[in-house]
Amino acid sequence: MNYIRLDYWDLGLAALLLVGVAALSLALQLKIEKKLLWAGLRCALQLALVGLVLTKLFELVSPWWTSLAALAMVLFAGREIMARQERGFEPSWAYGIGTSAMLMAAALVTIFALTTAVKPDPWYDPRYALPLLGMIMGNTMTGVALGLQRLTEGARQQRPGIEALLCLGASRRAALLPVTRQALTTALMPIINALAATGLVSLPGMMTGQILAGVEPLEAVKYQLMIMFMIAGGTTLGAVVAVFVGVYRLTDSRDRLRLDRLAGD
Amino acid sequence: MLSIKNLIRPGLEPVSLELAAGECIALRGPSGAGKSLLLRAVADLDPNEGELTLDGTPREKIPAPEWRRRVGYIPAEPGWWSERLSDHFQDWAAQAGPARRLKVSPEAETRRVSQLSTGERQRLALLRALEHRPEVLLLDEPTGPLDEETTAAVEALLREKQENGLAILWVTHDKRQAERVATRRFWIDRGRLREEMLEEAGQ
Questions:
Q1: β-pair partners for B71
Q2: Which residue among A161, A169, A256 places its CB closest to the CB of B81?
Q3: Do A166 and B45 touch (CB under 8 A)?
């Protein structure tokens, strides 16, 4: 494999584009130049840090350091899910549900991918484990956050209908089934759209990366397909776990709808 | 039939009440006095405590869905989970007769639930609840939005069910309706329930 290495001078040129856009914003008085430059700076710092950490982890190939990095990723994802809830579950519950759903889904799918499809040696080789986990988790996190938000929003909006079902003798699961369906549809919409549009509208980032690194397009496509299926599996698993735990948290053992357990305005 | 002893929930003082099979109790009181809070607590829709029994069986021994099916509750503004009316009934075709009795036009079926009038929805919610053959009905202003003639039709239908053993706890603002439909009348104010004395009722 050979590919064109970038030196810092090339990177600086690309960064110049960002500066140019910021200048445009200044000229047009759009007031997004500060946010844009700050975000760009943050991105550069975070990625540089990740680069350093990954270099170290790849040298070590230690199961302990690899799982520690994976755990840190899961905890960050849980925090992100919590931050994305608007008038949803109380923060501690959102964090708990989000983190446990992520942990289960991402760990299961990543270990499945590593031990059956990719099979690096050793199977926990961070060069494979961490990028796979990162891609699966980024998407699963979006799905879980969307699903939980839609569930709590739907329960609030459709409370009269839910309670009407309860009053006619429906169990909590049956009464919340319409809202559960909506929540899962919303959670899975991005990945379903991505599956349908890939290749026609966009070339996925990972595939592009492999092609740039000199991999044959058909080989890159195989990897990409595997990743897409893993992402779909992980997102579904994570969203289903989170939404079902959410349904139980929204109701109690006497099959009551407990909107009082949601965070206030 | 339904026995309520020391029912406690926020917003209510402890409530005790006995409702016999075929009996109708009317409940009146100013807005915000706790009428709906009481009905919701009896239906076990909100957290509450107390000794409630149905036919002698304690509420805790009856699964909540079964309790609510047997102790039906119809709020002042009933909820709907689908825009198609027939989705709300186990057998919509069988409702044609009762619907006609309650003066709901037969073409109601062709309209979306949100397009029905408040009064039509109210009567349809009553039919929807009766389809599950409850033993007790908790009614919150079931004829609030209805004219005199339709109110009479609803009262007649309920009286018939009552003769077959249905027990009713009927919240109403209308004193004359309370006297018409109920054998006992209660008054609730600031979360406190008491029975209206006969002389009071006669005023």
A1: B136
A2: A161
A3: yes
**Which is more confidently placed, A241 or A35?**
A241
pLDDT value at residue B202: 47
Q: Could you tell me if residue B87 is inside a domain? A: no
CATH number at residue B39: 3.40.50.300
| Interchain CB distance below 8 Å, B65 and A178 | no
CA distance B180 to A252: 39
Interface test with A, best of B81, B83, B132, B137 (most A CBs within 10 A): B81
What is the DSSP secondary-structure string of chain A?
-------HHHHHHHHHHHHHHHHHHHHTT-S-HHHHHHHHHHHHHHHHHHHHHHHHHHHH--HHHHHHHHHHHHHHHHHHHHHT-SS-B-HHHHHHHHHHHHHHHHHHHHHHIIIIII--SSTT-HHHHHHHHHHHHHHHHHHHHHHHHHHHHHHHHTHHHHHHHHHTT--HHHHTHHHHHHHHHHHHHHHHHHHHHBTTTB--HHHHHHHHTT--HHHHHHHHHHHHHHHHHHHHHHHHHHHHHHHHHTB-TT--B-GGGB---
Structure confidence at residue A10 as a pLDDT band (50, 70, 90): confident
Average the pLDDT over each of A119-133, A145-159, A172-186, B41-55 and give the range with the smallest value.
A119-133
The ipTM is 0.92
Q: Which residues of B touch A258 (CB under 8 A)?
A: 47
Among residues 240-259 of chain A, which lie with CB inside 8 Å of chain B?
A: 252, 254-258
Q: Which of B44, B75, B77 sits opposite A256 (nearest CB)?
A: B44
pLDDT of residue A59: 93
Name the residue range of residue B46's domain: 2-79+126-202
The tens digit of pLDDT for each residue in B170-186 reads 999 999 999 999 999 99
Whether B106 has a pLDDT exceeding 80, the answer reads: no
**Chain B residues within 8 A of A170 when measuring between CB atoms:** 65
